[in-house]
Amino acid sequence: xxxxxxxxxxxxxxxxxxxxxxxxxxxPVSVHWDVRTLLYxxxxxxxxxxxxxxxxxxxxxxxxxxxxxxxxxxAACFMYCFRKANKYAHVKVESPNILFDYIxxxxxxLLLTFMGYLQxxxxxxxxxxxxxxxxxxxxxxxxxxxxxxxxxxxxxxxNLATWLGITVTPVQxxxxxxxxxxxxxxxxxxxxxxxxxxxxITQQKxxxxxxxxxxxxxxxxxxxxxxxxxxxxxxNIYLIWFIAILLVAYWLFNNAVKENVFYFLVISILYAYIxxxxxVIELLILIADEGSLYLGTIYFIGSGIGLIxxxxxxxxxxKHDAGI
Amino acid sequence: xxxxxxxxxxxxxxxxxQASGAFEMQNIDADTYRKILEAHASDLYTPNFFxxxxxxxxxxxxxxxxxxxxxxxxxASSEEFLVPFVLFLCIACYVVLELxxxxxxxxxxxxxxxxxxxxxxxxxxxxxxxxxxxxxIAAASFATIFCLWLCIRFTDGFMALLSFxxxxxxxxxxxxxxxxxxxxxxxxxLMFISVIVYAVxxxxxxxxxxxxxxxxxxxxxxxxxxxxxxxxxxxxxxEAGKAMFSSTTSxxxxxxMLYWILSVLIPIVYIVYGLRKRDLLFIRIGFVLLIxxxxxxxxxxxxxxxEINMLIGGLSLIAISYALTKYLRIPKHxxxxxxxxRNKKELMNVEALIxxxxxxxxxxxxxxFEFGGGSSGGxxxxxxx
Lengths: 324, 385
Known about the structure:
The complex is a heterodimer. By secondary structure, chain A is mostly helical.
């Protein structure tokens, strides 16, 4: 308050503006985000509790009843969404109300449970496991676009990766995947490239351009991790993979500078740095005497400080109209 | 002055932040906002969020390997050499921090935050290299003072939090050394210190001379509200008593009743107070602590199976939030459901444009200056220019 009074005395703001600022404290306090935050654990608790209840009483309820219940609940949620949804447009469409987002999310999660249950209990898709993932994936992508929901889009991309045979949820990306298998590495590289390319197309064609970040985020991370895995595994030709990482990082970096996106600037530098550290350590192991230990520590100190300077420099360069 | 930064820079930065807030709430128009920004340029340097994280990580790498290199060169392996060596690293981090801030005015830039933390870590670990009686107490007291100094010098809220936490731990340690009496008075001593620090922080918030520390005071106030509850929570006292004091005697009936009453009462008092004063901080903390109390009760008395509890809890949460959205559609009792930040993104774009306009020129100047004088470091940055 004192600051604004000072500004008023210095004639930066008018009496009217000062009064308005003073009145701000008497305005109603918004509890918008508090209520939203309550809703989320509420839904999480109820669904978890229901899951446990069903699991414990599976003998008395019977699978058919459960599947029908899940199916009906899912259909009801989707019905609500189709009724309430605003008309589809290529640009960003605001959701009609707060509950809508949550109900859509519930519908999509129920859909996944429903499909998984069908396959697990009744083997509907037989040995074609892929189909059990592919069909919900298509529906999820459709929902993400039709209802304009980034959360659903993330689930859809995760499902796409599952369909391709890799796990991409942030926590499990390193734990669950056996990155020593060539199959997973190449799938990762291809899907990563595809997602990044698709993100650029999304932006250029201006179809839900605000989805581009999500695509690119998944794509870039999968691609870099797969490339790093390739470098660690194919030890005899690791320099080739190193060059590949540098090229991808360079492209992403330039793109980030052009579009003023700090996030991709930082991750491209960090992934390239990890790769560089690996190569330097490999080279130092080749020398393998006491001097290499000193060289290694000096390298880490110097590269760390150098990169900080680089980051600070680009921060100044990008500071104007900064996005994420 | 005590601060490492120029008073003018700190003040102008506060003006900028306040003006941003006022502009966001549409209390001042774009032109006024631009004029205020123009007149209140601050040299404090806070980069983008992601840059801060990355710089922090890289600083940690640089510090670790610098320590390693120095250790290699000095051949630090014997125990008596290790203590002065770690203390030297602590001082080195602090000196580098001071120099960097003097030169570049880093303010929450990631680099300065990590250097502060490293300095504290080295200081504290120097007490634990050798095992002697009272080393933990000495570590906690030095940490309290050092963190407080860092908070004062660099107007850093996180350091204020660390300082209070160290003080809290210090009191626990002192009580644990005092045997049975210590165990008995520990919860009250901790509650007492929480109240005292809360009162000091609240008073400081009213003191306009401490304007630059208002953020730190708010942070500490937040922590004291939680620590007061933790000090009185039945579960914590019971379990911590078992672990810290290795006591086999159970709590007297009257005391345990008192702790139960406090566990239930504190969250409710917070919520009621928050509702009356329209202070969301109290309401939010009260709500979270209420959940902690429910979990505490559930831990000792299971009235219903957990999944039923979860179901009831979840349904009531959904019911409460749904009722609130309906009830507050029209603002009532000074609360509203309207999302005041709805236009934040559009406003941010305008804001960014204004900032670019205002600081565009001075920024170029700065860059030119750095280009000229940047030879001192000679790092990668100048090469890329």
